[in-house]
Design brief:
Radius of gyration: 34 Å
Distance between the termini: 68 Å
Largest sheet: 8 strands, mixed
Length: about 650
């Protein structure tokens, strides 16, 4: 079978309009009868009218006596009116029918009983006082709920009160999900034994099924299929013949030699779109067969999510008689410049936080396989296809993935990566559940610049000044001139060479990196670790060009350790805690101070106050010390103020 090509690739908005306009979605879903008592969350397929009035009789609204109001008109404090119980006055409880001939209720606390069988009233009642008249809430035959209304708990109660015990609702959208790929391993198998190299834990079908459930549908995950067109054709035919309203395949939608979705769909139906001009999500396939929509989602989890979010999510809403959901938009400034590829719209997952009078968007991992960029995302930022990127000073619209109120409770930290920040964020959340910490690992220098430009509350930094040998203070003075700030120590930490278990290359000193048999992974330019390395190389008279991999970089210490652990490189410069966390060996070379630089204007901010209290908590110090490679004796102390 020939390799796929994206001959029909369309802009995202055009593909979405084409797909959503191809069906009468509510009619596609169909209807069914259900008991009103179990209809919570269902959507009415037609208007619902009351069968009974509520209440269906004149009912007492208070405990007291039921009377004919006219019999009480003469009552005053000076000249009370006395009524005979059982004749002109009748004791009633709340909810009971009014006896014949009565039209008002006098509250029990306003009644006097001068003698047995008599009640005395010292104020007049008025007609329908403390009475719920027939149909006060609902009148038989009137409209209770319109069509395409999603039932709330109050709606269910109203239906029962109106005598509607059964109603017609739209069927919940049933979605068949066909996972594909020979390299996939069921998570239950992976739980029993670690997957072999090249095997991937199959999580996408669980992910997509959860998304379907989250948006009101009923997922049907079908057996996983190999990368074989005949098998996929048979599975697709079975799904189309089932009671599913929509069919999704996962993986096999791209342009690889074993990606068959578009070909098979073209054989059994019609391909409307193969490829959208967006990333992630480019390999999306949209089509129809047997009168049903078919969506081929890409294999990478973020691409699969973009496909679901842009096409399946609105389709599920339409099948439930609801408009395609629109998210709230806020204007935000990027925490750093965001370059992008011209010609493709990019959807960037971002952290969001309110810093002063601006919302700051810190980009998360942009790879299509980075599922954690969704678990941590507060918003979705779109870079237009006609743009080569966004500048830090350029406000852009961001779609909110979480409540807007959370932005004012988020502490924005931009700067150098350290594992301690994860522990700090967790401890802060434990101590102050309404607060969260957004950490963007852009390097020490980028953190100081973000702080200077009002795009962060604080920044993690460990910049060595080569001229003085001092950490952080010279660079803070240089880059934050005119911006009062202070440095609060997080910890002293050990930096060195992260090497494979057993240190097979026998690396002992920095000069070993220049050996021809050694490969290296660096940290990004502007990071404190990169500055430290360059200074040490200069002192040792080593040319960076002699180091194989000097220009290959990662944004975190743990990413460096992961590269080493996977065997991609022999060594990287990083902290001991990262080496320990990934099961690598460590060759200590340097001891450095890692600080948080905080703008003084934020010291009264409750988020910063809580941060400093957490940083000085003994529980955090113990947790950090347990990581290894940290000295926490000065944790939480102000190292410099200016």
């Amino acid at each position: 079978m020939k390799r796929n090509v994206y001959l029909t690739m369309k802009p995202l908005a055009e593909a979405r309009a084409l797909f959503l306009g191809a069906w009468d979605w509510a009619a596609l879903a169909g209807t069914e009868r259900v008991d009103a008592a179990s209809a919570l969350g269902r959507v009415t397929a037609a208007p619902v009218f009351a069968a009974l009035s509520s209440p269906s009789y004149h009912a007492a609204a208070m405990d007291g006596i039921a009377v004919d109001a006219a019999a009480t008109y003469a009552a005053t404090e000076e000249q009370p009116v006395q009524l005979a119980v059982g004749a002109a006055a009748h004791f009633v409880n709340t909810g009971q029918p009014l006896p014949a001939g009565t039209n008002a209720v006098v509250m029990i606390e306003h009644i006097h009983e001068p003698a047995a069988g008599l009640v005395e009233l010292r104020a007049a009642a008025f007609p329908w006082q403390h009475v719920r008249k027939v149909g006060e809430d609902i009148v038989a035959t009137e409209l209770v709920l319109p069509h395409h209304h999603r039932l709330s708990a109050a709606d269910v109660a109203a239906l029962l009160a109106a005598g509607v015990f059964e109603l017609t609702v739209l069927c919940r959208p049933r979605v068949a999900i066909i996972p594909t790929g020979a390299e996939l391993v069921d998570w239950r198998e992976a739980a029993a034994r670690p997957p072999a190299p090249g095997a991937i834990i199959e999580s996408n079908s669980v992910f997509l099924a959860a998304l379907v459930t989250e948006h009101g549908g009923e997922p049907r995950v079908l057996p996983r299929q190999p990368d074989d067109p005949a098998a996929l054709r048979a599975a697709l035919a079975a799904a189309l013949a089932s009671d599913a309203h929509l069919v999704m395949t996962n993986a096999g939608a791209s342009a690889g030699s074993k990606d068959f979705t578009s070909h098979v769909l073209g054989e059994v139906g019609e391909v409307l779109v193969h490829g959208i001009a967006a990333m992630p999500g480019k390999p999306t396939v949209l089509g129809r067969a047997a009168g049903k929509p078919v969506v081929g989602t890409p294999g990478y989890p973020i691409s699969a999510w973009v496909c679901f979010d842009q096409f399946v999510r609105p389709a599920l809403a339409l099948m439930q008689g609801q408009p395609p959901p629109a998210r709230e938009i806020v204007m935000a400034v990027p925490a750093r410049r965001l370059p992008s590829r011209l010609g493709q719209e990019e959807l960037v997952r971002v952290h969001l936080g309110q810093v002063g009078d601006r919302v700051v968007a810190a980009p998360l991992k942009r790879g299509a396989g980075a599922i954690t960029s969704l678990t941590r995302a507060d918003g979705l930022l779109r870079i237009p296809a006609q743009s080569e990127g966004l500048d830090e000073s350029e406000p852009v619209p961001v779609e909110l993935l979480r409540p807007r109120a959370a932005l004012a409770r988020t502490l924005v930290v931009v700067g150098s990566h350290d594992i301690v920040l994860d522990l700090l964020a967790d401890e802060l959340k434990r101590r102050a559940p309404d607060l969260s910490l957004s950490s963007s690992n852009l390097g020490s220098l980028a953190g100081l610049i973000a702080l200077r430009d009002g795009r962060a509350h604080c920044g993690g930094t460990h910049l060595l000044d080569p001229a003085t040998g001092e950490y952080n203070v010279p660079d803070v003075r240089r880059y934050l001139a005119g911006t009062p700030a202070l440095l609060v120590t997080v910890a002293w930490r050990s930096q060195g060479l992260i090497v494979a278990p057993g240190n097979p290359k026998g690396l002992r000193v920095l000069a070993d990196l220049a050996r021809p048999d050694v490969t290296f992974v660096n940290r990004q330019a502007g990071s404190g670790t990169r500055v430290l390395l360059d200074h040490a190389l200069a002192q040792a008279g080593l040319d960076p060009a002699r180091i194989r991999g000097y220009d290959d970089d990662e944004y975190t210490h743990t990413a460096v350790a992961a590269q080493v652990r996977a065997g991609g490189v022999d060594a990287g410069l990083g902290i001991k805690a990262a080496a320990d966390a990934l099961g690598c060996d460590f060759v200590p070379l340097f001891r450095e101070r890692y600080d948080l630089c905080i703008a003084q204007r934020f010291l009264g901010d409750p988020r910063v106050v809580a941060l400093l209290e957490t940083l000085r908590a003994p529980e955090l110090a113990r947790a950090v010390a347990a990581l290894g490679g940290y000295d926490t004796a000065e944790m939480g102390r102000v190292a410099w103020e200016g």
